[in-house]
Amino acid sequence: MYGFLHNLCFFRKANIGKAVSEYSHMKVCEIFTSIQGESSYAGVPCTFIRITGCNLRCSYCDTTYAYYEGRELSEDEIMSKVRDAGIHLVEITGGEPLLQKEVYHLIERLLDEGYKVLVETNGSISIKEIDRRAVVILDIKTPGSGMSGEMDLSILNDLKSTDEVKFVITNRTDYEWAKEIIVRYNIIDKCNVLVSPAFGILLPEDLAQWMIEDRLKARLNLQLHKCIYSPDGRGI
Questions:
Q1: Of 94, 133, 178, 180, which is least packed with CB atoms within 10 Å of its CB?
Q2: Domain 24-228: top CATH class
């Protein structure tokens, strides 16, 4: 009887997993392979899965096409494209990827198959449901984005040591705001901190000088892909 029940449970679990992968669909804007342009993984070849949809409208957004563009793909179709790319590092981004609940199982499946998974999310949605093996890149919106009021800063209490927090800076006010958040939530002692000049808005040398003057324990985060390719290009 034990053997029968064990086999029955295994059969049900296997078929539930199969059903999830075969029938779980999400709207995907694009899947492409490029050089990782940001974070502490900058410079490493990476496959990007850009999920359609975003609940924010940042003033400096460079992927507005991801608000609505895309097509429905099954989890199996997404996995097939990732496998074909042959790259160990995978980033799930957007838009805002956590708006589509099917993404959580996709993250888990990628991790189970041995991929290193980065998840970039915008600071307005809980990260508690993300598989803890994944690296969360939490993009906290500064006042210059126009979206700082949408942030759920309690999320900063859920960070792991392998996660990263990013602040995109448009001016000195943003920089001072970010410093205050870093101190208030003791982020530097929790994980890596990334400080990025808004492309075409703030000069990198200005931000670098502020960081040097303050001895800020953070990484200057330039968008490397925009230096390599056309800044307005897609799939880079």
A1: 180
A2: alpha beta
